[in-house]
Amino acid sequence: MSTVTENSAMEPIPKTQTCTAAMGSLTIQRETLAAGVMERKKTEGLSEKVSRCCGLEAYLPLNEICCNFSLQPRPSPMAECCNNEAFDTITQMCCQSTKILTRKSSDHRCCYAGQYNPKTQCCCGGKTPPKGPACCDDNRLFSPPKELRAESKLHVCGSTSYDPKTERCCQRKHRLEKWKCPSNPNIPTTYDPKRYICCDGCLSKLMPWMDQCCGETPYGLAQRGVLCCKNILYEDREDEEVCSESGVPYKPFEETVCVSKWHNVPGGHCCGEELYQPNKTICCKGNSYNRMKNIYCCGGHAYNISDPSHKCCDGTLYTLKREEENDMQCCGSKLLNITSHEVCCISEDYALSYQARKNFKCCGHQYYNQSLWSCCAGKLSPLHHKTICKSSITKESKLQLVNNLNKAQLCNELYIGVVESVSQNSTVFSSVLKINGTNVTVEPNVFTLNAANQCNFLRLTAGKTYFFNRVDVFTDFNHESVLQSLHFILSKCSQ
C-alpha cells in the first residue's frame, strides 16, 4: 500500500453541522447539543467542491436532490422538492407543498390541491369555473405599488436612501467585533466625500494631505514617519524602513525578516523563518533540503524525480511499493489505482475522483448521469435540450494530467503551444514547440489538432498554453507555471 509523506493536522470538530473535504473525501459532522451526542460520517470519493450534505449523507447535486433531509434521485435536471419527494417541474407540479400532480399543460397552475389553466379558468376556493367578468382568482399576483417601485431605484446605505451625486455610503466589508474609530463601522452611514473620508467603515474628517486609507486609519503619502503594512499603520518609523512579506516594518540594508523572525543579515533569502543559500539548498514551502540533480519540490517535501518509488500529486508526495509503480495515477492530490473502481474527472481547475457508477461519465471535473445530462466540450446541458453533440460519443470530455505520463510517453513527441482558435472540428495551436526527449524544436507552422466531434474535447481557452500530443490535451497541477512544467519534462527525459 502506498504511503503519504505529507501529513495533515486534525481540525477541531465544530459545534454545528459542517462538511469538509480531505484528499477527495467528504466528512460530515453533526452535534446534537441537547442530547450531547456527536454524529460523524465520512464519505469516501466525494469532494466538497462538487458535493453537499443531506443530513449525514453526502451527495452530488448534479445527479441527486435533498428533500427535507431525504436523499432522492434527481428525476430531471429541473427537479425540485415537494415536501419529502422530488418532482420534475416540466411535467409535474407541487400543490399545497405536499401533493405532486401531473401537469396538464405548461400553462397550468395550482389551485389549492388541484390545478387550473389561468388563461381559461379561475381559481375560487378550490373550484375552477370558466373565466368571466365575475371571476375571483385566489392565485392572482399583485405588482408592487408605484411608490415602492420608484423607491427601489434609489441607492441604499443600510436602511437609508441617498443621492450618489452628493453622498457616499461608508460601510465595512467584513464585520468585526472590535474597532478603533469613534462610530460603529458595522453600521452603514452616508457621508459627504468633500468633507469626510471613509476607511473600512470608519469616518474621519478629510484633510488635504491625508487622502489614503490604511485599514481604518487615514494617512497621506507625504507624511513622514508612517508606514502602512497590510492595513496596519505604523508611526515613528525611519525613512529607510519598508514592509516585509509578513507585514512588519524592517530595515533591508541592515537586516532580513523571515516571517516574524529577525536576522542581522542584510539581503538574505528566506525559507520559512530561517535563512537559506539558494545555490546549495532548495526551499519547499518553508523546509530546506540539499540541492542536487533531479531534486524537485512536492509541497513541503523534496524528492528525486528519477526515483520511480516516489510520486507527486498536486503537492502531496507518495511512496510507492515496487508492484504499485505502474498501477498508480494522480487525481489532484489523491493517488488512485487504475485497476480500482474509481474514476478521475479533470478540468482546467480541478481533478476530482468519484466511485465508478453505471451510465455515468466525466464532463470536465463533473461526473454526470447520462440519463439526465449531455456533455459537449466540457459544458453540461439538460438531456431534453438540443445540443450539437452526436449521440454516439465514446470519449469523455476531460483533460489528462502530465504527471500521469510514464517516461516513454513523456519523452516521445509531446507538444506545447498557445490556443489560437477553436472550431467544431479542430483546435489550432500557435507558437508550438515540439518536445522529443531533451530535444526541443520550433514548429514552423500552426498545429491543428483534429477531432471528428469537438464535443469529445474539453473546450480550451484561447490565449492559454497547453501540453498536447496527437490524441489528448494535458494540464499540470504539480507546477505553477508552464516554464516549471517544461523544466520538469526536460529534466525527466535527460536521465
Characteristics:
495 residues; mainly beta; seven-stranded mixed beta sheet; three-stranded antiparallel beta sheet; 3 helices; 51 strands; 40% strand
Describe what this molecule looks like in 3D.
There is one protein chain. Helices cover 4% and strands 40% of the residues. The radius of gyration is 30 Å and the shape is extended. The two termini are 27 Å apart.
Going by helix content, strand content and strand pairing, the class is: mainly beta
Question: Which regions are unreliable across 5 or more consecutive residues at pLDDT < 50?
Answer: 6-38, 140-152, 386-393
Please indicate the percent range of residues in DSSP E strands (runs of 2 or more). 35-45%
Helix content: under 10%
Distance between the termini: 27 Å
Kindly provide the radius of gyration, computed on alpha-carbon positions and rounded to a whole number of angstroms. 30 Å
Secondary structure tally, helices? 3
Overall, the morphology is: extended
According to DSSP, the number of beta strands is 51
Q: Report the major sheet.
A: 7 strands, mixed
Q: What is the strand and helix layout of this fold?
A:
Blueprint: E1 3-4, E2 18-22, E3 25-32, E4 37-43, E5 52-54, E6 57-59, E7 64-67, E8 70-73, E9 79-82, E10 85-88, E11 92-95, E12 99-102, E13 109-111, E14 114-116, H1 146-151, E15 155-157, E16 160-162, E17 168-170, E18 189-191, E19 196-199, E20 202-205, E21 212-214, E22 217-219, E23 227-229, E24 232-234, E25 242-243, E26 249-250, E27 256-258, E28 261-263, E29 270-271, E30 274-275, E31 281-284, E32 287-290, E33 295-298, E34 301-304, E35 310-313, E36 316-319, E37 328-331, E38 334-337, E39 342-346, E40 351-355, E41 360-363, E42 366-369, E43 373-376, E44 379-382, E45 400-401, H2 407-410, E46 414-422, E47 426-436, E48 439-442, E49 447-450, E50 465-468, E51 473-475, H3 482-493
Parallel strand pairs: 45-51
Antiparallel strand pairs: 1-36, 2-3, 3-4, 5-6, 7-8, 9-10, 11-12, 13-14, 15-16, 17-18, 19-20, 21-22, 23-24, 25-26, 27-28, 29-30, 31-32, 33-34, 35-36, 37-38, 39-40, 41-42, 43-44, 46-47, 46-50, 47-48, 47-49, 50-51
